[in-house]
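Attaching the record inline, Q. Sequence:
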Amino acid sequence: MKEKGMEPFGLALEDFYNDKKDVEITLIRDDGFEFNVPIAYFFRGPKDFTNLEKEAIRLCKGKVLDMGAGVGPHSLELQRLGFEVYATDISSQACEIMKKRGIKNVQCTDFYNIEIGSFDTILLLGRSIGFVGNLNGIKKFLSFCKTRLNPEGIIICDSIDINSTKEKIFLDYIEKNRKLGKYPGEATLQMKYKNILGDKFHNIQIDPDTFKKCTQEIGLSCKILCREEDGQYLVMISP
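Structure, as predicted:
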């Protein structure tokens, strides 16, 4: 995903950080469905982490790469706990905010241009892995992560089981994807903030069974660690 697609998000983060006002970002799906996300959510602290997030933090070890870190809620907590943490995000505004919040090691880059060496833990929360776009993107990305892991290293990430939804607006979209021969959890989205509309980008939410198959195909092991009632789940991937 290119930074242009994230531009509205970055500007919303910047406004919230500077003014602490009521700020929301709008996500627009290619069928016209829209939903708003409060920017305050991205600035939450450890006491507001979900059980899934708390478990992910607990499992981190050694040198940690926090990919798609946003404004760094997880990096801040890991840093407080004494970890050597490297935070990356494609949004320049998010990266500047992370630096201002006191995160020591920040790099503004996409997944494939990280210049920081290898890691004991690669962490992707907030369903950041979805930005790889599709199933081939999942396999390509995890293959890349495999090359950046130290011996005994792990990848920790989350997604949401598309089969858990019961809402018609989502079920209809899933069925449309099936008819088009696409994986049901794929979506094309745009972000909007004020009058600024970002470029379209592809996103994927992947069910646990398909996730396991993708990892097995590239020689990785995938363990489902915990699941939430809304279908969100946490996985640990290792060579």
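The helical segments are 3-19, 51-59, 73-80, 92-100, 135-147, 168-179, 208-217. Residues 176 and 184 are 8 Å apart (CA to CA).

More tomorrow.
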